Structures are given as C-alpha cells and as structure tokens.
Amino acid sequence: MNTIYAENITKIYPGTKALDGVSCHFEGGKINALLGKNGSGKSTLVKIFAGAEIPTEGMVRLGDKTLRLSSTLQATQEGIVLVYQETSLVPTLSVVENIFLGRLPRKPNGLIDWKAARVRAAELMDGMGLHINPRALIQHLPMWQRQVIEICKALSHDPKVLILDEPTSALAKDEVQKLFQAIRRIKDRGVVVIYISHKLAEVNEIADTVTVLRDGVYVGSRDIRELTNAGMIHMMFGDVRHKVRPAESVPTDEVIMEVNGLTRAGWYEDVSFKLYRGEVLGIAGMLGSGRTELLNGIFGSMPADSGTVTVGGKTYARRSPVLMKGAGVGLTPEDRKVDGLILMHSIESNLCYAGMRRTTVGGWVESTRKRRAMAQRQVDALHIKLSGLNARASSMSGGNQQKVVVGNWLNNDPSIMIYDEPTRGIDVHAKQQIFEIMWAQSILGHSSIFVSTEIEELLGVCHRILIMRGGRIVDELKGERLQGTHTNDLYTLCLGG
Description:
alpha/beta
C-alpha cells in the first residue's frame, strides 16, 4: 500500500504563514478526510502534494521515495492528482477532449484515435455512474456532471494518490452516492484518497480517518470510529456555538418583490411568487430543477423569454444586472471564481466593485481613502482572513473568497440579496456567518432569496421555502407546516416522491 507523508512542511506567503511545521501522513487503501476551517492550510498542503506550490521548508515523501515537486506535471507523473473544487475543464471542448487533454491516444500513423478515446472515456464515466455522450460539449452540461468528468479526468492518470477538494459541492444527493461508490472502488485498489470536505455528515459516511489542521498547524489524526461530529468540530475550531434565527427577524406583510409568469424555455416555466420585506425566502430543489437559471432570470444575467419582475412598485419586463442593481438587488453567483470575483485584482477592488458609484464621480476614482474604508468595513464585519487588502483575490481560501463576494454586494447596501449556493465549499463557522448576515439584513428590513444544494440548511435559516421541481414552483412551506418539516421530508418534496 502507498502512503504519502508531509514532513515538517512550512509554507510562508508575504504577510502570512499558511503552514507551520506540519507533519502527517495518509495511507493507501483508506479514505482520509482532511478537515479544517477556511484558511487552516489544508488547501495549501494538498497543493504542495500536487506540485502546485513549493514548500518554504520540509518535504513530501511517497512511500520510501522523497519527492522534490516543482510542477503539477511532475506530481502527475509520480501518480499524485488533485481534483479542485472549481473545475478546470475547457467549456468549448468535448467531454472526451477534456478527459484526455494533451494526451489523446494516437494511431500508428500519428492521427488521433477518436474511437479508442471515446471508448475509454465511456468506461471511466460508466465507473462513476455517468452516462452521457463523450462528444458533448462541457459548456452544455450542468455543474454536477462537470464535477464527475473532472474526477474521470483524474482517474484516467491511474493515480497512486487522488486528492478530492470538496468533490460533492455541486452534486445532488443521489449523485453523491454514486460518487461515493466510485471512491470506495478507488480505495479498494490501494490508492491513497485524501478527501477534503466541510460536510461532516459526508465525512462520517465515507471517511476511514480524519486529519485536522487549524491555523496552519497539525492538530491530530483519528480513526473516524473514535469521533463524533462534536469532536470533529472541536478539533477544527475549538468551542463553537451555533446560533439560531433571532426572534426579531420577522418579515412584514409588505411585498418588496413580485415575480410574475417568468419563463425561459427548457429551464423554468410560469414562475410566480412574492417576496416580503424582511423575509429570508428559500428555494429548494434538486440540481437541474431550474433554481440557478431562475435566479439569473430575475437578476437579468440570463434573459427570460417572458414574465416580469416588480421591485419597489416598478415593473421590469426586461432586466439586466445594471438595472437590477440600480433597483437595489444583488446576486452572489453559484460559481464565485468565474462570476463573482476578478481573481487577479486586489481584495480591496473586489470588495468595492458593486458599490463603485459610492466612491466615483463620472466614472473616475474619487477617494482611495473611501474605497479602503469600504473594503476594511467588510473585512472586519465578515472576519475575512487575508494577508492584506492589496493581495490578489486568488490568494485567498475558498471560504474567504465567498465572504468577499458577499461583502462586495453589502457595500452597495441592497434591499434584496439573492444568494445562489453561498455556503458551497465553506466551513461550518463561515456558513453561520452567512446565515447571520441574512438575519441581520432581515432585522433591518432587507430581504433575501436563498438557494442551497444542502437543503437541510434552508429549514433552519428561512421564514418560507418554495419547492421547485422540473422548472416550476410546485409547493410552499411556511408557518406550522415549515416547522414540522424534517430534512428527509424536504428531500422527498424536491424529488417528487
């Protein structure tokens, strides 16, 4: 069995020490969960394993072999493959081209052997329970299918070490089970599987061991059978208290937004609902139900075929992000790296884009001091961990990037916030902070629409939940019915059982 070792690894970035003398190991034939709050150093550690980062001190060992990794290509050649939370697929290429990118099989005459490539791609996808045409373009596939194809791409290298960073963040419940079956088959081949997740229920189901980092320091490793959820949380955070929705967070009878007959052919049809002042409204549905497309239709980032949205008494038959932002609406998108951030720009800039008019006159920057103050306000309020406001957004952990996306919109003081998967890939503590933002906005009289794949979150956060299935709103939970609904009941409603 292979075993990968981190030996006294330290990683220092300008202004911060991401890892501080970490020594731990992960065994083959086991699913090894790697846990830690956002900014704990777990992503940095696995990037060092995968050759994407070079340690300041220390080394990596695979079995008896000491590795001096300086690139992901070198790590891949050693049998170490990292599947990132955000997919690295090329949207305009086909499934088979992405799986074998740069490695397409050749015939003896040098031409690409497309038949062999498609057969092998189909075999990999069959092993993951995914049955789609290898010729399909990535840009036409839903997020969960892209994630599975990303894993198939990794498996095509026949890895000794497979690192999965939040692999289920874009998967529905049934797809998660298919993925788990595939991961267990990989484990049975003696592969070292390192599994990063913030979903403790999944860790309990899939992991054999748990290793925890906190603030760049190794806390410990335990057999999963020795740990409860409370034990894992304590290792990750110390003492954490979960807050519940405050009693003063109560919606009024005033309609702040009304959606009427919104339709986009093939995605959602004749959707109508009202949003009340101070309300946190959840939309529950399985992946493919049309939730994300509906949110983009409301915000105008994806045009609808028909229907209207009324905000503050003004009806918008045609919408655009500029118009809706002007109407006091904000949207945190599902894919923060692509749609929510400009990764190469500074954290300060990313925190000020939505509220740019507050610091400019005629399109020119008016006050650097005001920009800095706006950005710092959200850093303090959201407890964003960063090396400095001038650092690039790409330098941050996923959870802190998500806080920047939210903070950017809060700097525009919206009366309505639309959250599409705001808790995807962030830790328990960061999730609580997102929920507390919604409740705080509710108390101020602002409203939120909240979509989450982890639909159990909706039950504890929302005043009312709409059930979306097949592109339609098919049910509504509120009052006593909402209070009496359990997670399994909500899943059943979303599935249509």
